[in-house]
């Protein structure tokens, strides 16, 4: 049992117990992510080779929806379930979350849904890590640390960014607050999980950024302006995804029919609009955004295909599509702001993610890990501005407000609860009877 008493009394014991536990979690999560990434490569190559598979997307969506309806009701909350268990520990996350989200995501990519991969890696990492809760009889504090370590390991191993992965596991739980008690297990799990993935032969995409402008008032102002655009894109992405999901749940009672309908819409859109570049991960288009001008509407295309895929119930993550939206939006803004394409594509890559996930620090570190330390100041400014402009919206509805961005809202409220609170407080209050008040 992880003893809080000994952890406080003996720093060496604390380090040793978490060195062992975080390493085991990292090895398991990193190995699972490696298998997942290899499976995604196969699914993407198969879909490209057999273009007709897109017409089976509705049936694939129905099958995944039925699978979750039959076996996955307790884990369909996905990333939000993990956040809820960190804030209010109740039940150990079932291990079946890992194979279910793995199968669901690979199937989604095989048949052409526009989804990502981060959500799958995070859910696999957290569900694997949480099995140690009952095995070691962990208390709630130790369980939170285990879950955050699993999140960090999954995120780090799927993107090859250990520093960003470590901070993501700490920062994503609540807006404006990090659990520093878990910084050691999260950092260790992120670093080891990344190394494990590399040992299995995982290769991460390299994004070339050859020119970073010198620091000046004009460049800093242009980056802040771009950050506003990135924050708006993040807000639209999150809000429209939740809107489609809410409409689907309201009007389509049978859950497997929701991804079936979404699959029909996506497949028809791919055929009618020649939208192959907007499905799957879209890594080739992201790489192109760093190299030459793209169509200025590419970010809208990816946003539309992704919110329909995720909102209708296909499994996967949001982060890689957010990278796509940000990189192509930055590419479109570059001529307007007289800045290099690769530079703004890189800033958009991380800033839209920062605004949508409410993780500006992790996103800044990701920029430094991917593009070099010289971009640090610009990335920090773009990510913070995008985080502010995105407001109290986000892709994770179970995030809690621990620090106010600008507008006053109740501290501790979840993003899912905010709309009802806002409607309640926007209603006009009845006039006060001054005579009765005086009496």
UniProtKB/TrEMBL annotation:
<feature type="transmembrane region" description="Helical">
    <location>
        <begin position="257"/>
        <end position="273"/>
    </location>
</feature>
<keyword id="KW-0407">Ion channel</keyword>
<keyword id="KW-1133">Transmembrane helix</keyword>
<feature type="transmembrane region" description="Helical">
    <location>
        <begin position="215"/>
        <end position="237"/>
    </location>
</feature>
<keyword id="KW-0406">Ion transport</keyword>
<feature type="transmembrane region" description="Helical">
    <location>
        <begin position="52"/>
        <end position="69"/>
    </location>
</feature>
<keyword id="KW-0813">Transport</keyword>
<feature type="transmembrane region" description="Helical">
    <location>
        <begin position="182"/>
        <end position="203"/>
    </location>
</feature>
<dbReference type="InterPro" id="IPR050368">
    <property type="entry name" value="ClC-type_chloride_channel"/>
</dbReference>
<keyword id="KW-0472">Membrane</keyword>
<feature type="transmembrane region" description="Helical">
    <location>
        <begin position="146"/>
        <end position="170"/>
    </location>
</feature>
<dbReference type="InterPro" id="IPR001807">
    <property type="entry name" value="ClC"/>
</dbReference>
<feature type="transmembrane region" description="Helical">
    <location>
        <begin position="375"/>
        <end position="395"/>
    </location>
</feature>
<protein>
    <submittedName>
        <fullName>Voltage-gated chloride channel family protein</fullName>
    </submittedName>
</protein>
<feature type="transmembrane region" description="Helical">
    <location>
        <begin position="12"/>
        <end position="40"/>
    </location>
</feature>
<feature type="transmembrane region" description="Helical">
    <location>
        <begin position="336"/>
        <end position="355"/>
    </location>
</feature>
<keyword id="KW-0812">Transmembrane</keyword>
<dbReference type="GO" id="GO:0015108">
    <property type="term" value="F:chloride transmembrane transporter activity"/>
</dbReference>
<dbReference type="GO" id="GO:0016020">
    <property type="term" value="C:membrane"/>
</dbReference>
<dbReference type="Pfam" id="PF00654">
    <property type="entry name" value="Voltage_CLC"/>
</dbReference>
<dbReference type="InterPro" id="IPR014743">
    <property type="entry name" value="Cl-channel_core"/>
</dbReference>
């Amino acid at each position: 049992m992880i003893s809080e008493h000994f952890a406080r009394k003996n720093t060496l014991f604390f380090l040793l117990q978490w060195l062992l536990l975080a390493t085991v979690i990292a090895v398991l999560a990193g190995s699972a992510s490696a298998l997942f990434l290899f499976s995604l490569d196969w699914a993407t190559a198969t879909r490209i080779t057999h273009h007709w598979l897109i017409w089976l997307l509705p049936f694939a969506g129905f099958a995944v929806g039925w699978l979750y309806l039959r076996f996955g009701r307790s884990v369909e909350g996905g990333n939000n379930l993990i956040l809820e268990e960190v804030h209010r520990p109740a039940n150990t996350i079932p291990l079946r979350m890992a194979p279910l989200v793995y199968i669901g995501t690979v199937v989604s990519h095989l048949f052409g849904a526009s989804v990502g991969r981060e959500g799958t890696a995070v859910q696999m990492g957290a569900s694997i890590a949480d099995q140690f809760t009952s095995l070691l009889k962990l208390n709630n504090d130790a369980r939170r640390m285990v879950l955050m370590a699993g999140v960090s390991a999954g995120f780090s191993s799927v993107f090859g960014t250990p520093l960003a992965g470590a901070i993501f596991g700490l920062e994503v739980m609540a807006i404006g607050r990090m659990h520093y008690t878990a910084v050691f297990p999260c950092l260790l799990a992120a670093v080891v999980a990344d190394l494990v993935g590399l040992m299995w032969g995982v290769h991460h995409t390299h994004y070339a950024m050859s020119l970073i402008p010198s620091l000046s008032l004009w460049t800093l102002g242009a980056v802040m302006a771009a950050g506003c655009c990135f924050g708006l894109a993040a807000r639209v992405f999150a809000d429209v995804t939740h809107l489609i999901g809410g409409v689907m749940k309201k009007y389509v009672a049978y859950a497997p029919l929701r991804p079936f309908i979404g699959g029909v819409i996506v497949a028809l859109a791919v055929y009618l609009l020649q939208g192959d570049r907007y499905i799957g991960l879209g890594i080739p288009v992201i790489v192109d955004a760093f190299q030459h001008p793209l169509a200025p509407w590419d970010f809208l295309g990816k946003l539309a295909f992704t919110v329909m895929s995720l909102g209708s119930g296909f499994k996967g993550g949001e982060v890689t599509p957010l990278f796509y939206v940000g990189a192509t939006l930055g590419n479109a803004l570059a001529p307007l702001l007289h800045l290099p394409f690769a530079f703004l594509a890189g800033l958009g890559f991380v800033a839209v993610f920062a605004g949508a996930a409410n993780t500006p620090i992790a996103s800044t570190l990701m920029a430094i890990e991917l593009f070099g330390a010289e971009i640090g100041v610009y990335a920090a400014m773009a990510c913070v501005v995008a985080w502010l402009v995105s407001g109290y919206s986000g892709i994770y509805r179970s995030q809690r407000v621990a620090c106010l961005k600008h507008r006053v809202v109740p501290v501790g409220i979840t993003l899912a609860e905010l709309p009802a609170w806002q409607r309640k407080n926007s209603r006009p209050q009845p006039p006060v009877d001054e005579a009765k008040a005086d009496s």
